[in-house]
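$ run holo --ligand "nicotinamide-adenine-dinucleotide" --emit C-alpha coordinates
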Amino acid sequence: MSKVKVAINGYGTIGKRVADAVSLQDDMEVVGVSKTRPNFEARFAKKRKYPLYAPNERIEAFEKAGLEVEGDVRAMCEAADVVVDCTPGGVGEQYKDMYIDAGCKAIWQGGEKHDIAGFSFNALSNYSHAIGRDAVRVVSCNTTALCRLLYLLDGAYGIKKTRVVLMRRGTDPGDAKKGPINAIVPNPITLPSHHGPDVNTVIPHIPITTLAAKLSTTLMHMHAVNVELESSPSREEVAELLSSEPRMLLIGSDVGSTAEVIEMARDAGRPRNDVWENVIWEDSITVENGELYLFQGVHQESIVIPENIDAIRAMCELERDAAASMKKTNGAMGIGVL
Ligand code: NAD
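-- output --
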Protein backbone atom coordinates (compact mmCIF):
# COMPACT_ATOMS: atom_id res chain seq x y z
CA MET A 1 0.00 0.00 0.00
CA SER A 2 1.37 3.44 -0.87
CA LYS A 3 2.10 5.77 2.02
CA VAL A 4 0.00 8.86 2.74
CA LYS A 5 1.94 11.99 1.72
CA VAL A 6 2.17 14.55 4.52
CA ALA A 7 3.36 18.17 4.26
CA ILE A 8 4.13 20.31 7.30
CA ASN A 9 3.56 24.05 6.91
CA GLY A 10 5.62 25.75 9.65
CA TYR A 11 8.65 23.84 10.91
CA GLY A 12 8.80 25.24 14.46
CA THR A 13 8.21 23.70 17.89
CA ILE A 14 5.25 21.57 16.82
CA GLY A 15 6.08 21.20 13.12
CA LYS A 16 9.52 19.65 13.58
CA ARG A 17 8.11 17.11 16.02
CA VAL A 18 5.20 16.24 13.72
CA ALA A 19 7.68 15.70 10.86
CA ASP A 20 9.82 13.34 12.94
CA ALA A 21 6.76 11.43 14.22
CA VAL A 22 5.38 11.02 10.66
CA SER A 23 8.77 9.63 9.55
CA LEU A 24 8.52 6.95 12.23
CA GLN A 25 5.21 5.56 10.88
CA ASP A 26 5.12 2.89 8.16
CA ASP A 27 1.89 4.16 6.57
CA MET A 28 2.80 7.84 5.95
CA GLU A 29 5.78 9.91 4.77
CA VAL A 30 6.96 13.53 4.84
CA VAL A 31 6.86 15.10 1.35
CA GLY A 32 7.84 18.58 2.50
CA VAL A 33 8.32 21.02 5.36
CA SER A 34 8.17 24.80 5.09
CA LYS A 35 10.09 27.56 6.83
CA THR A 36 9.76 31.34 6.55
CA ARG A 37 13.37 32.08 7.56
CA PRO A 38 16.60 30.36 6.43
CA ASN A 39 17.73 29.79 10.02
CA PHE A 40 19.34 26.82 11.82
CA GLU A 41 16.01 24.96 11.88
CA ALA A 42 15.85 25.12 8.09
CA ARG A 43 19.41 23.74 7.91
CA PHE A 44 18.49 20.89 10.26
CA ALA A 45 15.38 20.13 8.20
CA LYS A 46 17.67 19.61 5.21
CA LYS A 47 20.05 17.49 7.30
CA ARG A 48 17.10 15.28 8.15
CA LYS A 49 16.42 14.99 4.39
CA TYR A 50 13.04 16.71 4.53
CA PRO A 51 12.26 18.46 1.21
CA LEU A 52 12.35 22.16 2.15
CA TYR A 53 9.81 24.72 0.89
CA ALA A 54 9.21 28.41 1.65
CA PRO A 55 6.52 31.05 1.00
CA ASN A 56 7.04 32.41 -2.52
CA GLU A 57 8.22 35.86 -1.37
CA ARG A 58 10.81 34.30 0.96
CA ILE A 59 12.52 31.95 -1.54
CA GLU A 60 15.13 34.57 -2.50
CA ALA A 61 16.25 34.88 1.15
CA PHE A 62 16.82 31.11 1.28
CA GLU A 63 18.83 31.20 -1.97
CA LYS A 64 20.96 34.05 -0.61
CA ALA A 65 21.63 31.97 2.51
CA GLY A 66 22.75 29.08 0.30
CA LEU A 67 19.74 26.92 1.15
CA GLU A 68 18.09 25.40 -1.88
CA VAL A 69 14.31 25.04 -1.68
CA GLU A 70 12.09 22.73 -3.72
CA GLY A 71 9.44 25.38 -4.36
CA ASP A 72 6.78 27.47 -2.63
CA VAL A 73 4.24 26.44 -0.01
CA ARG A 74 1.52 25.94 -2.61
CA ALA A 75 3.71 23.48 -4.57
CA MET A 76 4.36 21.61 -1.32
CA CYS A 77 0.63 21.34 -0.62
CA GLU A 78 -0.06 20.14 -4.17
CA ALA A 79 2.42 17.29 -3.60
CA ALA A 80 0.62 16.21 -0.40
CA ASP A 81 -2.48 14.23 0.54
CA VAL A 82 -2.67 16.10 3.84
CA VAL A 83 -1.01 19.25 5.16
CA VAL A 84 -0.40 19.70 8.88
CA ASP A 85 -0.53 23.44 9.55
CA CYS A 86 1.94 24.26 12.33
CA THR A 87 2.18 28.00 11.71
CA PRO A 88 1.83 30.34 14.73
CA GLY A 89 -1.67 30.65 16.22
CA GLY A 90 -3.95 32.76 14.00
CA VAL A 91 -1.71 32.44 10.90
CA GLY A 92 -3.17 29.09 9.77
CA GLU A 93 -6.46 30.78 8.85
CA GLN A 94 -4.66 32.63 6.00
CA TYR A 95 -3.77 29.33 4.34
CA LYS A 96 -7.24 27.75 4.42
CA ASP A 97 -8.19 28.67 0.82
CA MET A 98 -4.79 27.59 -0.47
CA TYR A 99 -5.12 24.16 1.14
CA ILE A 100 -8.57 23.74 -0.42
CA ASP A 101 -7.31 24.92 -3.86
CA ALA A 102 -4.32 22.58 -3.66
CA GLY A 103 -6.75 19.69 -3.11
CA CYS A 104 -5.24 18.43 0.14
CA LYS A 105 -6.82 17.67 3.48
CA ALA A 106 -5.77 19.99 6.32
CA ILE A 107 -5.05 19.71 10.04
CA TRP A 108 -4.72 22.87 12.16
CA GLN A 109 -3.43 23.22 15.72
CA GLY A 110 -4.98 24.54 18.91
CA GLY A 111 -3.89 28.15 18.26
CA GLU A 112 -6.66 28.34 15.66
CA LYS A 113 -10.35 28.66 16.47
CA HIS A 114 -12.68 25.63 16.41
CA ASP A 115 -14.54 27.12 13.42
CA ILE A 116 -11.52 26.81 11.11
CA ALA A 117 -12.27 23.11 10.67
CA GLY A 118 -15.67 22.86 12.40
CA PHE A 119 -14.30 19.82 14.19
CA SER A 120 -11.86 19.60 17.12
CA PHE A 121 -9.98 16.36 17.70
CA ASN A 122 -8.61 14.25 20.52
CA ALA A 123 -7.76 10.64 19.66
CA LEU A 124 -9.18 8.99 22.79
CA SER A 125 -12.33 11.12 22.83
CA ASN A 126 -13.59 11.33 19.23
CA TYR A 127 -11.33 9.50 16.73
CA SER A 128 -14.24 7.90 14.85
CA HIS A 129 -15.76 11.30 14.00
CA ALA A 130 -12.56 12.30 12.15
CA ILE A 131 -12.71 9.35 9.73
CA GLY A 132 -12.68 10.62 6.15
CA ARG A 133 -12.89 14.31 7.16
CA ASP A 134 -11.10 16.94 5.04
CA ALA A 135 -10.47 19.42 7.88
CA VAL A 136 -9.60 18.82 11.53
CA ARG A 137 -8.27 20.98 14.38
CA VAL A 138 -6.07 19.16 16.91
CA VAL A 139 -6.81 20.90 20.21
CA SER A 140 -4.11 22.66 22.28
CA CYS A 141 -1.70 21.02 24.72
CA ASN A 142 -3.82 21.91 27.78
CA THR A 143 -7.07 20.82 26.13
CA THR A 144 -5.50 17.56 24.92
CA ALA A 145 -4.42 16.70 28.47
CA LEU A 146 -7.83 17.57 29.92
CA CYS A 147 -9.73 15.63 27.23
CA ARG A 148 -7.65 12.47 27.78
CA LEU A 149 -8.16 12.59 31.54
CA LEU A 150 -11.84 13.54 31.54
CA TYR A 151 -12.74 11.05 28.80
CA LEU A 152 -11.33 8.21 30.91
CA LEU A 153 -12.93 9.40 34.17
CA ASP A 154 -16.30 10.06 32.55
CA GLY A 155 -16.36 6.60 30.93
CA ALA A 156 -15.53 4.84 34.20
CA TYR A 157 -17.37 6.90 36.84
CA GLY A 158 -19.43 9.68 35.22
CA ILE A 159 -18.64 13.35 35.84
CA LYS A 160 -20.92 15.84 37.63
CA LYS A 161 -18.56 18.82 37.56
CA THR A 162 -14.90 19.56 36.79
CA ARG A 163 -12.85 22.44 38.18
CA VAL A 164 -9.27 22.96 37.01
CA VAL A 165 -6.62 25.54 37.85
CA LEU A 166 -4.08 25.70 35.00
CA MET A 167 -0.58 26.90 35.83
CA ARG A 168 0.75 27.68 32.36
CA ARG A 169 4.35 27.92 31.25
CA GLY A 170 5.32 31.45 30.22
CA THR A 171 6.66 30.40 26.81
CA ASP A 172 8.63 27.55 25.19
CA PRO A 173 12.31 26.91 26.09
CA GLY A 174 13.55 27.93 22.62
CA ASP A 175 11.75 31.29 22.67
CA ALA A 176 13.90 34.17 23.93
CA LYS A 177 11.37 36.88 23.02
CA LYS A 178 8.43 36.50 25.41
CA GLY A 179 7.19 35.21 28.73
CA PRO A 180 6.85 36.60 32.25
CA ILE A 181 10.29 36.89 33.86
CA ASN A 182 9.49 37.75 37.47
CA ALA A 183 5.71 37.63 37.53
CA ILE A 184 2.61 35.48 37.72
CA VAL A 185 0.16 36.70 35.11
CA PRO A 186 -3.57 35.90 35.42
CA ASN A 187 -4.19 34.77 31.83
CA PRO A 188 -6.89 35.41 30.89
CA ILE A 189 -7.85 37.83 33.68
CA THR A 190 -11.55 37.41 32.94
CA LEU A 191 -12.93 34.15 34.33
CA PRO A 192 -13.59 31.37 33.65
CA SER A 193 -10.80 30.84 31.10
CA HIS A 194 -11.30 29.59 27.51
CA HIS A 195 -9.90 26.13 28.33
CA GLY A 196 -13.20 24.73 29.64
CA PRO A 197 -15.20 25.73 26.54
CA ASP A 198 -12.35 24.32 24.41
CA VAL A 199 -12.70 20.92 26.14
CA ASN A 200 -16.41 21.13 25.27
CA THR A 201 -15.58 21.42 21.53
CA VAL A 202 -14.37 17.80 21.86
CA ILE A 203 -16.51 16.42 24.72
CA PRO A 204 -19.61 18.65 24.79
CA HIS A 205 -21.47 17.13 27.76
CA ILE A 206 -18.83 17.49 30.52
CA PRO A 207 -19.47 20.42 32.91
CA ILE A 208 -16.11 22.13 33.37
CA THR A 209 -14.83 25.43 34.73
CA THR A 210 -11.19 26.52 34.34
CA LEU A 211 -8.96 29.31 35.67
CA ALA A 212 -5.44 29.94 34.35
CA ALA A 213 -2.31 31.92 35.13
CA LYS A 214 1.08 32.10 33.38
CA LEU A 215 4.19 31.43 35.45
CA SER A 216 7.85 32.19 34.86
CA THR A 217 8.77 28.68 33.71
CA THR A 218 9.25 27.21 30.23
CA LEU A 219 9.35 23.47 30.89
CA MET A 220 5.76 22.32 31.36
CA HIS A 221 2.26 23.31 32.41
CA MET A 222 0.71 21.96 35.62
CA HIS A 223 -3.02 21.37 36.25
CA ALA A 224 -4.61 21.17 39.70
CA VAL A 225 -7.70 19.08 38.95
CA ASN A 226 -10.88 18.59 41.03
CA VAL A 227 -13.66 16.40 39.62
CA GLU A 228 -17.03 15.62 41.24
CA LEU A 229 -17.79 12.05 40.14
CA GLU A 230 -21.15 10.28 39.80
CA SER A 231 -19.79 7.24 41.65
CA SER A 232 -17.13 7.02 44.34
CA PRO A 233 -14.13 4.87 43.35
CA SER A 234 -11.15 4.34 45.63
CA ARG A 235 -7.94 6.24 44.87
CA GLU A 236 -6.36 2.89 43.94
CA GLU A 237 -9.10 2.23 41.38
CA VAL A 238 -8.53 5.66 39.81
CA ALA A 239 -4.76 5.04 39.69
CA GLU A 240 -5.34 1.66 38.04
CA LEU A 241 -7.70 3.16 35.47
CA LEU A 242 -5.25 5.90 34.53
CA SER A 243 -2.19 3.66 34.44
CA SER A 244 -3.97 1.28 32.03
CA GLU A 245 -3.88 3.98 29.31
CA PRO A 246 -0.43 4.33 27.64
CA ARG A 247 -0.92 8.09 27.10
CA MET A 248 -1.12 8.61 30.88
CA LEU A 249 2.15 8.33 32.83
CA LEU A 250 1.86 7.84 36.59
CA ILE A 251 4.96 8.94 38.47
CA GLY A 252 6.11 8.74 42.07
CA SER A 253 6.96 11.48 44.54
CA ASP A 254 10.67 10.92 43.84
CA VAL A 255 10.00 12.93 40.66
CA GLY A 256 9.18 16.05 42.64
CA SER A 257 8.78 18.77 40.01
CA THR A 258 8.38 19.52 36.31
CA ALA A 259 12.17 20.04 36.21
CA GLU A 260 12.65 16.43 37.28
CA VAL A 261 10.07 15.15 34.79
CA ILE A 262 12.12 16.73 32.01
CA GLU A 263 15.35 15.39 33.51
CA MET A 264 13.76 11.93 33.59
CA ALA A 265 12.85 12.24 29.90
CA ARG A 266 16.47 13.25 29.18
CA ASP A 267 17.79 10.26 31.14
CA ALA A 268 15.41 7.99 29.21
CA GLY A 269 16.89 9.29 25.94
CA ARG A 270 13.58 10.65 24.71
CA PRO A 271 14.00 12.79 21.53
CA ARG A 272 14.19 16.49 22.56
CA ASN A 273 13.28 15.25 26.11
CA ASP A 274 9.68 14.95 24.93
CA VAL A 275 6.94 13.67 27.24
CA TRP A 276 3.93 12.80 25.07
CA GLU A 277 1.89 11.45 28.01
CA ASN A 278 -0.16 13.25 30.69
CA VAL A 279 2.12 13.16 33.73
CA ILE A 280 0.08 12.28 36.83
CA TRP A 281 1.60 12.39 40.30
CA GLU A 282 0.22 9.15 41.76
CA ASP A 283 0.46 10.37 45.37
CA SER A 284 -1.70 13.37 44.49
CA ILE A 285 -4.65 11.16 43.51
CA THR A 286 -7.17 11.63 46.32
CA VAL A 287 -10.88 10.77 46.51
CA GLU A 288 -12.93 12.42 49.25
CA ASN A 289 -16.75 12.32 49.39
CA GLY A 290 -16.96 11.44 45.69
CA GLU A 291 -14.58 14.23 44.67
CA LEU A 292 -11.29 13.43 42.94
CA TYR A 293 -8.20 15.61 43.24
CA LEU A 294 -4.90 15.27 41.37
CA PHE A 295 -1.94 17.12 39.85
CA GLN A 296 -1.05 16.54 36.21
CA GLY A 297 1.90 17.90 34.26
CA VAL A 298 1.68 18.72 30.54
CA HIS A 299 4.72 18.89 28.27
CA GLN A 300 3.36 21.54 25.93
CA GLU A 301 5.89 21.00 23.16
CA SER A 302 5.10 17.35 22.57
CA ILE A 303 1.74 16.18 23.99
CA VAL A 304 -0.21 16.97 20.79
CA ILE A 305 2.21 15.13 18.45
CA PRO A 306 0.63 11.64 18.69
CA GLU A 307 -2.79 13.27 18.26
CA ASN A 308 -1.66 14.74 14.91
CA ILE A 309 -0.55 11.28 13.76
CA ASP A 310 -3.87 9.71 14.73
CA ALA A 311 -5.75 12.56 13.03
CA ILE A 312 -3.88 11.87 9.76
CA ARG A 313 -4.71 8.18 10.03
CA ALA A 314 -8.41 8.83 10.66
CA MET A 315 -8.81 11.50 7.95
CA CYS A 316 -7.01 9.39 5.32
CA GLU A 317 -8.94 6.28 6.41
CA LEU A 318 -5.75 4.33 7.03
CA GLU A 319 -7.33 2.85 10.17
CA ARG A 320 -10.97 3.00 11.29
CA ASP A 321 -10.39 1.75 14.82
CA ALA A 322 -9.21 4.36 17.36
CA ALA A 323 -7.45 1.88 19.65
CA ALA A 324 -5.60 0.29 16.72
CA SER A 325 -4.37 3.68 15.46
CA MET A 326 -3.24 4.80 18.91
CA LYS A 327 -1.47 1.50 19.48
CA LYS A 328 0.38 1.88 16.17
CA THR A 329 1.32 5.51 16.93
CA ASN A 330 2.39 4.66 20.47
CA GLY A 331 4.49 1.71 19.29
CA ALA A 332 6.29 3.69 16.59
CA MET A 333 7.07 6.63 18.90
CA GLY A 334 7.79 4.74 22.12
CA ILE A 335 4.85 6.24 24.03
CA GLY A 336 4.16 4.63 27.41
CA VAL A 337 7.72 3.31 27.65
CA LEU A 338 10.27 5.02 29.89
P1 NAD B 1 6.47 28.21 16.42
O1 NAD B 1 6.51 29.70 16.44
O2 NAD B 1 7.45 27.44 17.23
O3 NAD B 1 6.60 27.69 14.91
C1 NAD B 1 5.84 28.26 13.88
C2 NAD B 1 6.52 28.00 12.56
O4 NAD B 1 5.73 28.59 11.51
C3 NAD B 1 7.90 28.61 12.44
O5 NAD B 1 8.73 27.64 11.83
C4 NAD B 1 7.74 29.80 11.52
O6 NAD B 1 8.88 29.97 10.71
C5 NAD B 1 6.57 29.37 10.67
N1 NAD B 1 5.78 30.50 10.18
C6 NAD B 1 5.59 31.71 10.73
N2 NAD B 1 4.80 32.47 9.96
C7 NAD B 1 4.49 31.71 8.88
C8 NAD B 1 3.74 31.94 7.70
N3 NAD B 1 3.10 33.09 7.50
N4 NAD B 1 3.64 30.93 6.80
C9 NAD B 1 4.26 29.74 6.99
N5 NAD B 1 4.99 29.47 8.10
C10 NAD B 1 5.10 30.45 9.02
O7 NAD B 1 4.97 27.83 16.81
P2 NAD B 1 4.48 26.51 17.55
O8 NAD B 1 4.70 26.67 19.01
O9 NAD B 1 5.02 25.31 16.86
O10 NAD B 1 2.91 26.61 17.34
C11 NAD B 1 2.28 26.15 16.15
C12 NAD B 1 0.82 25.89 16.46
O11 NAD B 1 0.74 24.84 17.43
C13 NAD B 1 0.05 27.07 17.06
O12 NAD B 1 -1.29 26.99 16.63
C14 NAD B 1 0.12 26.81 18.54
O13 NAD B 1 -0.92 27.43 19.26
C15 NAD B 1 -0.01 25.30 18.55
N6 NAD B 1 0.53 24.66 19.75
C16 NAD B 1 1.71 25.07 20.30
C17 NAD B 1 2.17 24.46 21.44
C18 NAD B 1 3.43 24.91 22.11
O14 NAD B 1 3.51 24.83 23.30
N7 NAD B 1 4.42 25.37 21.39
C19 NAD B 1 1.46 23.40 22.01
C20 NAD B 1 0.30 22.95 21.39
C21 NAD B 1 -0.18 23.58 20.26
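-- notes --
The mean pLDDT is 97.
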